[in-house]
Amino acid sequence: MRDLPAPKVTARRASHLRGPPPSQRTVGAFDPLSGPLSDLFSSALALPLSGIPEGTLAKDDRAWDLWTAFCSLVGDTGIDPWRPSYPSLDAFEVKLEVLLHVAFVLHCYLAMKPRSSADVAPKVSSAWQQGGGVRRILERHSIEPVPPRLLRPALRGLLALHCTAYGFRSLLPRRKEPIDMHLLLQMLATTPGTKVGALTLDWSNPLFTSLGAAFSLAASTGCRAAEAMAPSVNDYRYGPSEKRYRRDNVSWRISGCIYADPTAQQLLEMVPGRDGCVVVPPPSKSDPFGLFFSSHPIHLLWEPNDHANACDWLLRIELRFPLHGRSRSNYALFFRDSALTPMTQSTLDTYLEHLLLLYLSAEEAKKRSFHSFRIGLACCLRASGCPDPIIQALCRWRSPESISIYGRLNADARATYLKEAFTKRASSVSSANLPAVDIDDALTALAGAAREPAGNGDLFGDDELATN
User: Fold this and answer.
1) 423-436 residue pLDDT tens
2) N or C: which end of the chain has fewer CB within 10 A?
3) Which is higher by pLDDT, 376 or 31?
4) Does the CA dihedral 325-327-331-335 come out positive or negative?
5) What are the residue ranges spanned by the domains of the chain?
6) In whole angstroms, what is the distance from residue 409 CA to residue 397 CA?
7) Is the pTM of this model over 0.70?
8) What span, in angstroms and rounded, lies between the C-alpha atoms of 132 and 60?
């Protein structure tokens, strides 16, 4: 493939390339893996998997293993896990396939253990997701499984039984609580010299400078942890395919001009409230190829008097740990030492927890993570009266449904709205409750008018009524 790397085929991806054995050969069948074009067909075969994350493939692998084991128990001798395509089935066969998939979900649910000790039972959604993994594998091999709409009545039934046994609260998702600007300012104002985990806090230290920049950037832009850091140092891949913040994701707007590689002198000439930085968000979970949000850079003003100003923290990184030229694209934006070793997500989570424990109880600290900055941004935007479409754009969500999940209504905002509502009157009336003219009265009035002699202004007399 000219100018393109060959599709990556790991052992896991290779397992997804193996489909059902052909039951018969058709006239147009051919062997794509032999002949002079075998390499081309191998790449074409692997191409659909190139855009699927390894984590998704791993989940699908586990689901398929469960499905294969389940199918081996069906009937006396088991059945083939590679099911026939839905369009080829008659009505009775469709019922059997629906029953098979529903039984598999129920089988997974009964075999599952609760995810944590706080859960009284496994989540119904977890069992449903196992069925989703099986469906994805079938679809990758051009096998159309039965539509989800045919399975949903059984899912509702399972949810009803779960609620009867364990209560509706057992179905509630456990989501992180927000970190708002007040809590962020508390953490960033922590006195140097404070013991934070195994280290002594020093905001000029590379690690803590990066932490301050990462926290403030997340609070201002809704940056995700996966955008900021990789799970491990070995997961960083510098070059065009890098999907995490690097130094070249940040440019600087000074005196109306954009500088991708500013000098220290240019940075020192910045004016508060006028100049700032321009951040290009990397690809993310909701935008894996950067087609939606990476083309919309984020502009941040420089306000040095604001201790949580993301631009000011990024400026500290530029001045204390300068990088120029190609080095800007070869180093992570956030690092843990003077060698600019990339910071990992585990390091980020560890020191965020240490800082939270300085101001919150252990129970409350556990309810927060780096994602809490994103939730806090959405909540505060909603509390400020920001319209939902703007919240969606600022938090970089593809779907407005995310706003209802994370853009929670604050308690004081709810109280204010209710207080204002109680001063109003509900004067609206539905159409069905509007007064209507009685049809009998209307006919009686019309008949009476018809019997009266026509006078001035009448449209017609008795003769005309008789003829009409």
Assistant:
1) 777 777 777 777 76
2) C
3) 376
4) negative
5) 52-171, 181-363
6) 18
7) yes
8) 8
Residue 466 pLDDT level (bands cut at 50, 70, 90): very low
Q: For position 9, what pLDDT does the model report? A: 56
**Once rounded to an integer, what is the mean pLDDT over residues 443-467?**
53
